[in-house]
Amino acid sequence: MTAYILRRIVGMIPTILIVSIVTFAIIQLPPGDFFTTLQAEIAESGGGQDKETARLMAERYGLDQPLPIQYLRWVAGWPSGDFGWSLEWNAPVLPIVLERMAYTMLLGVLSLLFMTAVAIPIGIYSATHQYAISDHLLSFLGFLGLSLPGFLLALLWMFIGTIVLRIPVGGTVSQELADAPWSLAKVLDYLNHLWPPAVVLGLASTAQLQRIMRGNLLDVLGQQFITTARAKGLKERTVINKYAVRVAINPVISVLAMEVPKIISESTIVGIVMSVPTTGPLLLRALLSQDMYLAGTFLLFMSLLLMFSNLVADILLAWADPRIVYT
Length: 327
What we know:
Elements: H1 2-27, H2 34-44, H3 51-60, H4 67-76, E1 85-86, E2 91-92, H5 93-128, H6 133-147, H7 150-164, H8 184-221, H9 224-231, H10 236-248, H11 250-274, H12 279-289, H13 292-320
Helix pairs in contact: 1-13, 2-3, 5-6, 5-8, 5-11, 5-13, 6-8, 7-8, 7-11, 8-10, 8-11, 11-12, 11-13, 12-13
């Protein structure tokens, strides 16, 4: 297993380089650069900027160089932790990205935990109570969850929290605690603002995992080894939890790994609606303003996160199913 993990990690290096090349090329597709976009925004507001000043600024930050040279300068700084300079924020890219990625990853982990804790028990219950009224009700709720987009759930929560419950919603902490030093009250308030976006991001995927778990478990319950286990006199709970679920859960683990990019993409609109500092709003702004190093580093880190999530999923599959052996 250790040799397999090391091979997978080493194999990520060329993948990351290919992703970085494609990402850098895509970001450069729109005409112009950051300073031409800035000039257009200033002109729309009724102001103006000297073209010579814009040209000198482009030369200062190397935006007048050929694209291969710009790309090599960007990659050359990676070993030292230099991922470029954000032109819009006038700051190094790495601290900005890490701050937003940390919050997004925290939301992602909580969403995955929510999905696992809700979808798997409901899927097991639906499979063991097939065609019962409760099974039909849970299936209906699952289809309802699949049909509702994340931004609509975010808007619904904002309405319920503000109008019905009359509690502070949106942001990471309440306004009265925003500038206060960290204390137990502020930590509790932070957690109170953290769970709604995590649940909103996880609800649609929870419905999907519920259906997958139900279908897989129904297939496994009809297999011969389950009949043999029951014939030996084992308790039904033991047959289901120890034997059936352990086999049926494999596809669920694989799907959980693929939910990571979905959570990150949905966090864009959810972050805007709920005013939380996910990667989405800042990445959108970086793409619109053509802040190429900031946008490219965001996309690079998201790709790296996806690769590691798939590696973790493979390790969990081997742990859950002894039949799976990696060499």
